[in-house]
Design brief:
Strand content: 5-15%
Shape: globular
Number of domains: 2
Number of helices: 14
Helix content: 40-55%
Strand order of the largest sheet: 2-1-5-6
Structural class: alpha+beta
């Protein structure tokens, strides 16, 4: 997902869940900051590098791909962007443990780890709530890809079609991929940028949904494709449907965190909260555009009647560097939440017998 959903849509979901305007802004900032909290940024503010929740492209270019380096990459991406769906998943045919460890890191919604993620954020600062909402939302957008470099899991091929609603069905148009990062995706002609094809199993080109480009991050996209792990069976992905599920599930999760409902369970969506708003939300989700920030921002302002400030990565950085008690600043609380979440996920992966993310070094409280 992009800033449009992680910041502006998360603000809307938080407000509908009962948080105040100011609280919703803090949750939304924390959700988006997950995509910005890199080691490069942490070094600038003299914060612990272990709290990184993402990696910049330049950092990835220099990343090691030996076992230790791959564990470092996996700890970040599997924890915050590709939360595993089933750490004990099985396949009909027998595969090596090496393959199955990677297969079991494939992301998807409504997992045991999603429940643990939401439960971990309860009774914690708002920064932990925002982190949890980022992770939850990405389980929907990033489903079917794994947060570890892998050609045999994350690669795609020419069987990749965009689906356009037509009558009672869909019209298919084959997607073309290019590798020009400086050129925006051509939405009109279904031409999208993806990572370079490389058969090297552990290249960063095969991390997450790089081979599918930004397609999983567009809320309007409906597509059919053949994943490398799919045993020659197509997957049809309906992002408008899934993003609506993500939005209503965030509302349920945050109502649980607030204490308004007694439990948060799998496949729990607060459809009632959006009953009168569903068509408005659907219009935003299905609008073909590179990013829907303006539409979500306007919607949020309609909900609260207050201006939703534009996201700025720098909003809380000075308060951290200039504070005599940095650990209790906004960024300090985010760091504690990030370390706690990463520790929980890595520990769960390790406990399943999977060593791709290494061993949890710290289970911090937040």
């Amino acid at each position: 997902m992009q800033m449009d959903f992680h910041y502006y849509a998360t603000y809307c979901a938080a407000y509908l869940a009962g948080f105040t305007h100011e609280e919703s802004l803090d949750i939304a900032y924390s959700a988006q900051f997950v995509d910005d909290c890199s080691r490069t940024l942490l070094a600038k503010i003299k914060a612990p590098s272990s709290a990184a929740t993402t990696q910049l492209q330049l950092e990835m270019m220099d990343a090691r791909t030996d076992p230790v380096g791959l564990q470092d990459i996996t700890r970040i991406w599997a924890s915050f962007h590709f939360l595993p769906k089933d750490l004990h998943a099985q396949k009909n045919k027998k595969f090596s443990k090496r393959y199955m460890d990677k297969f079991r890191l494939i992301a998807g919604p409504n997992s045991d780890l999603v429940l643990k993620t939401v439960e971990l954020a309860k009774d914690k600062p708002l920064q932990s709530v925002g982190i949890a909402m980022h992770v939850l939302a990405d389980t929907w957008a990033h489903a079917n890809f794994a947060g570890t470099p892998s050609f045999v899991i994350n690669n795609t091929n020419y069987v990749f079609y965009e689906l356009f609603p037509e009558g009672e069905g869909f019209r298919e148009k084959q997607i073309s991929f290019v590798h020009k990062k400086s050129v925006p995706d051509d939405l009109e002609n279904s031409i999208y940028t993806n990572s370079l094809y490389q058969r090297n199993e552990n290249t960063i080109m095969n991390l997450g949904h790089g081979r599918a480009g930004k397609i999983p991050d567009y809320s309007f996209m409906r597509y059919r494709y053949l994943p490398a792990w799919g045993d020659y069976e197509d997957i049809i992905k309906d992002n408008p449907h899934d993003y609506m599920k993500a939005f209503t599930q965030m509302i349920s999760a945050m109502k649980y965190i607030r204490g308004d409902i007694p439990a948060f369970e799998k496949e729990q969506y607060d459809d009632e909260a959006v009953a009168s708003l569903r068509e408005r939300i659907r219009e935003i989700l299905e609008k073909r555009q590179h990013i829907a920030s303006d539409d979500w921002k306007a919607f949020g302002e309609e909900l609260s009647g207050k201006p939703v400030e534009e996201y700025s990565i720098y909003k809380y950085l000075d308060a951290y560097t200039g504070s005599s008690d940095a650990e209790d600043s906004f960024i300090g609380r985010f760091i504690r939440g990030a370390l706690a979440h990463k520790g929980m996920v890595v520990d769960e992966i390790c406990r399943s017998g999977n060593r791709l993310a290494g061993v949890a070094k710290r289970r911090a409280g937040s």
